[in-house]
Amino acid sequence: MTSEETDPSSPPVDIVSRYDRQVRLWGAESQQKMMNSKILYIHITGISAEILKNLALAGIKATLCDTRPVTEMVPHFFTPTTNTSTTNEEEEQESEKRIKYASIAHAVKPLVEEMNPLLDGCPILEKKVEDLTEDDLKEFTVVVASQIALRDAVRLSQIVVQTLQRKLYIADVFGYNGTVLMDLGNDLMYRPEVGKELLDSIPLKPYIPLEDLINVPLQDCVNRFHKTPPSVYIQYRCLLEYHAQKGYFPGGRHQKADEQFDEGIFHTFLKSQGVSLSDDVFQMLGRAGMSQMAPVCAILGGILGNEIIKVISGKAEPANNTILFDGKTCKAWTFLVQPKV
Asked: Regarding the domain delimited by 13-212+290-334, which CATH topology (the fold level of the hierarchy) does it fall under?
């Protein structure tokens, strides 16, 4: 190749200079793949805000889908400084001058655009998660969702992964813990790393669709390292079951003012799954629910940002199926949930 020729798979020189450190880290070809990708973020929570921040800074285009009112926003990286809450008469008068946002997506949009102007804007998809269609989702390489109903997660998996052959991450933080469910499809290829050398592409195996993953009884979620099902995963499934029956998550800002925590839902679900939790964990879940701990969001969001870059670039083996984070031990690990053979 002469000095006048360029590699068509590489980004323009001006882009390389802007993302110089990233290009040095994972190469110009990977950077171009990232810049050609689009990620849809469904619900901006503490964990998805961290993922959004990490990947937007890396040059990956973002679209926001969050029609919830700003009053439901929890503090995170993209929390607007001009919120509409007031605590006294002075702030009440001052609030008249503040910006009123139509939704969380509208509040976050200008902050993302300010953080990385090279993204050429941050579009908003004005739909609720249950109304998203194949046409809405077909342009995205990856979909990241948080605090959604389990039935919506399954429907997204069917559209995003099974129909469109894209990638789906469901990421949530609850108190000191966090869980990520992944559906990466049966066609994901990656190049393993041995030292600094990249080997030929191989498929990521085994593949368990999200619908099959959640149908695995909790008592069967064991492996050679975990003789009993991980408590973090059991807790997450309890929260999803509670939402499935009540329409909202227990504890904190999600719990309805006129309703008490229904502990019976947890007991019945755990009995049907052949597992149990200690009383102190029950009480914690009832009080905290999906509360967002900033350090947990930052750690797990950093891990997820790196995992999504692996999937987009095709370099290095990505996590498969499930990631768990235990804040008490500060331990994160991949955990394969699969049916018993």
From this structure: Rossmann fold (3.40.50)
